[in-house]
Design goal:
The chain is an alpha+beta fold and 282 residues long. It has helices at residues 2-23, 51-64, 67-71, 76-79, 84-94, 170-185, 189-193, 202-213, 276-281, and strands spanning 97-110, 113-124, 127-143, 146-149, 216-229, 232-243, 254-265, 268-271. Mean pLDDT is 82; it is low at 1-18, 25-46 and 278-282.
């Protein structure tokens, strides 16, 4: 039991550190800089043109080693840091793979996001050998009216393709997440207990969360996406919080995003405070 309590405390510490860092001024938000907040995926412009054509053009550019053409499909945030010529010069020396052929097996589009299932034959540029056949799922998103490849560091912030998810279960997952957030907003440990995984000692976890939440004011929560695969779920949300102590960060609200893991027990979803798959690997 002691080890289990430590796992709960460790998991909650990571969760609260992200929120406390935002509220405590460790992270500068768009609002602090006078900028508009980022747009949720569901609100991205739906008209970015034919997704398959964009994927086809990007892979054709890869196969021709036309890096200036591929540059147009990089995320706008990435393109701001270089010119097409600079990227082409970098890729000419650093791009590790040579694409010999490719096949777009299928594509999926949902809420301004795109997933491309691609089979390709590639070799390492510096180690010529027989081409290796591999399959991948590329994540894209609609940015500024154009389809763009998702930067590697953001891949984990987007859900799996719709075909791999239990879409019918996701509305209930979102509903449970928002209800749990509301319990935290009003600082009700009794209400929150009903949303925590019973196998994680929900009573103890609820008390710990309620105790830590006394330092925060939860002002707003927007669900960006939900993902249900088998008995596992994830929810990505944008949270607006502020420190309860007005002396911290001048009492200003702060915006942060986080992904929370949930688990289905029977027919209901619960917040997965201790992820046993990860705990088993430690």
């Amino acid at each position: 039991m002691g080890r289990h309590r430590r796992q709960i405390s460790h998991a909650l510490f990571g969760m609260m550190l992200a929120l406390w860092g935002a509220a405590g001024g460790c992270r500068t938000t768009q609002a602090d800089r006078g900028e508009a907040p980022p747009t949720p995926p569901a609100a991205f412009a739906a008209d970015c043109g034919d997704f398959r054509l964009a994927v086809e053009a990007a892979w054709s550019a890869r196969m021709r080693s036309d890096w200036a053409a591929l540059f147009a499909f990089l995320d706008p945030d990435v393109r701001r840091d270089a010119t097409a010529e600079e990227y082409a010069a970098w890729a000419e020396q650093r791009e590790p793979f040579v694409v010999h052929s490719f096949l777009i097996d299928s594509v999926e589009v949902s809420d301004g996001l795109g997933w491309a299932f691609v089979t390709s034959r590639t070799t390492l540029r510096r180690l010529p050998a027989e081409p290796v056949v591999s399959q991948r799922v590329e994540k894209w998103r609609c940015r500024d009216g154009c389809w763009a490849l998702v930067p590697p560091e953001l891949l984990g912030t987007l859900p799996a393709p719709p075909s791999q998810r239990d879409r019918a279960a996701e509305p209930r997952l979102a509903e449970r997440f928002l209800a749990a957030w509301n319990a935290r907003r009003v600082r009700s440990a009794d209400a929150l207990r009903g949303f925590l995984d019973p196998e994680d000692d929900a009573a103890a976890a609820a008390e710990l969360i309620a105790m830590q939440d006394r330092r925060l004011e939860h002002l707003r929560c927007d669900v960006l996406w939900t993902e249900a695969i088998g008995q596992r779920g994830r929810v990505r949300a944008r949270l607006v919080v502020q420190a309860a102590d007005p002396a911290i960060n001048e009492g200003k609200p702060a915006t942060t995003e986080m992904t929370e893991r949930w688990i289905r027990r029977g027919d209901e979803w619960y917040c997965d405070i201790v992820n046993r798959d990860e705990s088993a690997r430690r």
